[in-house]
Amino acid sequence: MNKGRLIGRIAQDIKIETNNGNTFAGLSLDIDESWISNEELKSRTQRVHVKASGQVAEKLEIMKPIKGNLLMIEGRMNNYSREMDGQRLYFSEVRAFSAEIIRESHDAPNTHLNQNIFCFIGRLGSDPVLRTTPKGQMVSFDIACNEYYKGEKNTQWIKMAIFNKTAENAATILSRGRLVYVEGKVHTSEYEKDGEKKTSTGIIVRSWKALDKKPGFQGSNETFSQDSYQPDDETNGFYDADDDEIPF
Q1: What is the secondary structure of 61-88 as a DSSP string?
Q2: What is the pLDDT of residues 103-112, one digit of tens each?
Q3: At a CB cut-off of 8 Å and minimum separation 6, what does 215 contact?
Q4: 204-207 — which CB contacts under 8 Å span 24+ positions?
Q5: Known Gene3D superfamilies for this protein (predicted)?
């Protein structure tokens, strides 16, 4: 499984291109989020990059959404690499399979409509790595999500990070090869390398559930209890980490 939904304001006018009879679209969404931490209301705006092709891109070309419109995108995380100037570059984006304009007004408040939620099922590629940050513990890992298109298998490796109280639990319970369901939000970090601005994208985990038995578990299927975590009311799955504390 690899799918989710974004609702946010279009950050810049959409770029539409046609190549060999195929239509492609590129856009960025600004998604507002707020949460309570230590009895203080906090907020941030997350920018997520989206690509569309085929019928979805053609629909965007017809709808002509503009900067500031509230747009809903349903799609999947897509990671890929390409060779440029002798270097292997890596990219992450949301690949849209549907798009709808939710609101055209620029002035009406819409924070309560914003959404950024993705769901995945996959296996851990390595044991989780537990780190201590200035604002608490954080655990990171990658999961492999298998997809099939026209009978061919494609594996997407998705970067994950867990903050707050659950990081240590995940580091203790999860391990390489375990099958896990993960729910979280797309996070894009910006950084500079060799004087150039770059971005890196992954998932901040809100909740998770192990879908298989722990290694060495001897009980029957009927007695197997799934390890899982749901966020508490205070954090609602949000986190207080800065971009330089996030491992992607």
Answers
A1: HHH---TT-EEEEEEEEEEEEEEETTEE
A2: 876 665 666 7
A3: 175, 178
A4: 204/161, 204/162, 204/163, 204/239, 204/246, 205/160, 205/161, 205/162, 205/166, 205/170, 205/237, 206/117, 206/231, 206/236, 206/237, 207/182, 207/183, 207/231, 207/237
A5: Nucleic acid-binding proteins (2.40.50.140)
Structure tokens at 168: 């240590």
**pLDDT tens digit sequence for 179-231:** 999 999 999 877 677 777 777 789 999 889 999 877 765 554 433 344 666 66
Q: DSSP character for 214?
A: P
Q: How many domains does the chain have?
A: 1
Q: How do residues 137-147 score in pLDDT, each as one tens digit?
A: 889 999 999 98
* Domain CATH number, residue 232: 2.40.50.140
Structural domain boundaries enclosing 57: 2-245
